Structure formats: structure tokens, C-alpha cells
Design the sequence.
């Protein structure tokens, strides 16, 4: 089956390199199973680097600017092929971009080649039990002792924890200064005082907790200047948030295609479901919402790539609408499958569980609405 990608019908948003990437993704994904063990997170993470060569798109060669439209195409594809791979890929980006954007030459040389190859997997330690959307309220602290820093605190719901080799950990070096004291550090797995634990999830994603107790790291592990951590975190999320919508579109695409196939084969009341007008209406709604979501995502991605604009209303609209629309599309797919739609063997049941986190991570729907409203009230587009 041909893998649908937005280069097919929305080519005005792309250039020749993106069309080449789309052809490469099809070659990798269409003719054979892309992963030797699609449910083994560590193996999937490694093969995306060693076998598929996808991580090179997370580490730009000549600048700190990620090509967002390339991320959109990759996550459209991964969303259709393997949601676990998509989640790992996204967080590999979050765990590497702070090094690209703020790392020194030594840090880049030590980390980036192995990140690209897949030999090194990263994680992004920002969220805390009491600091999710309100990043500035984080409680994890960093205090200077000579040539080292002592980190103390807790992080939760951190993706890639069970398979990560390093974590970009954000801690406040000056709590009295609020977010102006937040600083980023590279913390290696196995560092004394640094422990991880796994959190069971409704979808099979490698997520866990970080516990830092008198965790001692050298000053050479600091990323960027003291107090620049909040800016690094926001810059990183800004680079990748648009692609969350692309992953949602990929999952929605898969659900729509599965639904079209099912209703053409399933016979009820003497004729295929596809001939029932109410079923046709549902398919029409699903397809229209998906196209609207793709257009919003590509508008935001194109603007980010061509104007290097910061994430504003367009990004928030794309992330919000695409993830919410995908939830509705996949829910409709489950409904069209009837009782089969809630059995563990069916693809749409897996998608139903996989799509739900996308409405939360990298900025909840509610936070996106606040961003959109604030832009409207100050007269921004």
C-alpha cells in the first residue's frame, strides 16, 4: 500500500529536498516491515538511527535551525507506521536539540555523532510533579560547589527514560529569580545520585521518573549560560511542537484508510457499510477534518522554515486542531468498526490509545487556546 504523505497533494509547501525525503521514506516503509521488533523500544530507537537514518534530520549541519517540514514528513510517516517509533523519534529531538542550540564544541563533538547513529538516545527532563504547563514553578534546584553542580529534585512523565543514555535536565540555580534562574544540564545515565523508574502507560511508550538526590555533575555538563535554561527549553519545544500535529495527522490518516477498507468489506442489512449514507457522511467528515489539519500544520511549518518565526498563533492552532481532530477521526474509526473497534487485535484500537497523549504533551490544548487568544488580543496574526 502506498504511504500517503503531504507532498502528494500539497506540494506548494515543499521544495525538491522534501520530495526526495518523501521518496526515501516510502522506500523505507512501504515494501518491508521497517522494524525488526516493532514493540521493543530500545531496538526501535537504535534502528531509526542505524538502519533508517532518521536522526540526521534532528541535527542540522550548518545552523541551529531544524527543517520543520522534514520533521512533518517523517512524523506523518511514523504516525502511520509505528506510534512508538514516532514518540521515540520526537523525544530524541528534544534530547538533542538543546545540545545543537546551546552546546559548546566539545559537547557537540561528544554527543551529536552518536545521537545521529542511534547509539545514543536522549531524554528531555523538564516536567515535574507540580510543574507541567507552569514550567517556571519547577522545584528542582542546582547549587554550585567549586567546579561542580549539585542537582536535587524530581521529574515525572519523561519520555525515553527507560532507554535513554543521557538526559537534558532543567534545574533552578537561583530559585529567587524564578524562571531566570533555570539552567540546563547534561546528566548521564548511571551518574551517582541520579535514579530512574518506569511509569506504566495506557499506550506502550517508554516513559518514567527521574530522581536527583545530591546528584553531582561537573560544570562541563552545563548547557549554555546559567539562567538560560528556560529559553533553551522554550526554543526546543518551539522547534518541535508543530511536528506533533504532523504525527497526529499520520495516525488519523491510518485510521481513515483502515475505515475505508473496513466499510467496503463489512456487509450489514444486505449491503456493504460503504453504501450506507450515514457511513458515507462520517467518512466525509473524517477526510475533511484531516485535510484541514494538514493545511494548518503545513502553514505553520512553512512559516517556521522560511521566516524563522517564533511559535505563535499559527503553531498553536496547528498543534491544537490537528491533535483534537485526530482524536475525533480515530474515535469515528472505532465506531465504524463496531465491536471489533474495541478489541485489542484491531489497528484502530491501538490508534485510539496512541492518539490521546498528543493532546497533552508539548503544550496541552488548553495552553494552545491561551496562546491563540493572547495573540488575538494584542493584534498578532
Sequence:
Amino acid at each position: 500500500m502506498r504511504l500517503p504523505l503531504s507532498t502528494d497533494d500539497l506540494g506548494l509547501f515543499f521544495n525538491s529536498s522534501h520530495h526526495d525525503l518523501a521518496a526515501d521514506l516510502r522506500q523505507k516503509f512501504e515494501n518491508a516491515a521497517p522494524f525488526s521488533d516493532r514493540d521493543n523500544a530500545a531496538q526501535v530507537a537504535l534502528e531509526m538511527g542505524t538502519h533508517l537514518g532518521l536522526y540526521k534530520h534532528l541535527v542540522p549541519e550548518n545552523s541551529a535551525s531544524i527543517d520543520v517540514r522534514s520533521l512533518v514528513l517523517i512524523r506523518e510517516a511514523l504516525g502511520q507506521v509505528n506510534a512508538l517509533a514516532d514518540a521515540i523519534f520526537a523525544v530524541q529531538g528534544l534530547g538533542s536539540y538543546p545540545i545543537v542550540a546551546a552546546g559548546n564544541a566539545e559537547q557537540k563533538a561528544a554527543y551529536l555523532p552518536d545521537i545521529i547513529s542511534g547509539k545514543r538516545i536522549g531524554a528531555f527532563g523538564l516536567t515535574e510533579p507540580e510543574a507541567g504547563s507552569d514550567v517556571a514553578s519547577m522545584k528542582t534546584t542546582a547549587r554550585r560547589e567549586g567546579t561542580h553542580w549539585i542537582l536535587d529534585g524530581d521529574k515525572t512523565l519523561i519520555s525515553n527514560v527507560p532507554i535513554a543514555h543521557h538526559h537534558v535536565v532543567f534545574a533552578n540555580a537561583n530559585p529567587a529569580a524564578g524562571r531566570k534562574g533555570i539552567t540546563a544540564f547534561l546528566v548521564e545515565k548511571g551518574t551517582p545520585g541520579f535514579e530512574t523508574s518506569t511509569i506504566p502507560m495506557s499506550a506502550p511508550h517508554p516513559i518514567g521518573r527521574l530522581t536527583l538526590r545530591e546528584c553531582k555533575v561537573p560544570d562541563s555538563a552545563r548547557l549554555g549560560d546559567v539562567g538560560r535554561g528556560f529559553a533553551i527549553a522554550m526554543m526546543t519545544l518551539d522547534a518541535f511542537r508543530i511536528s506533533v500535529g504532523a504525527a497526529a495527522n499520520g495516525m488519523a490518516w491510518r485510521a481513515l484508510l483502515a475505515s475505508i477498507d473496513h466499510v467496503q468489506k463489512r456487509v450489514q442489512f444486505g449491503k456493504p457499510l460503504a453504501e450506507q449514507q450515514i457511513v458515507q457522511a462520517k467518512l466525509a467528515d473524517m477526510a475533511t477534518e484531516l485535510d484541514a489539519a494538514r493545511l494548518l500544520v503545513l502553514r505553520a511549518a512553512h512559516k517556521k522554515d522560511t521566516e524563522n518565526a517564533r511559535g505563535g498563533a499559527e503553531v498553536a492552532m496547528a498543534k491544537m486542531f490537528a491533535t483534537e481532530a485526530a482524536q475525533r477521526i480515530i474515535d469515528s474509526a472505532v465506531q465504524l468498526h463496531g465491536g471489533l473497534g474495541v478489541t485489542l487485535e484491531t489497528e484502530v484500537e491501538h490508534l485510539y490509545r496512541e492518539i490521546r497523549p498528543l493532546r497533552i504533551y508539548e503544550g496541552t490544548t488548553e495552553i494552545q487556546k491561551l496562546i491563540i487568544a493572547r495573540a488575538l488580543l494584542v493584534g498578532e496574526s
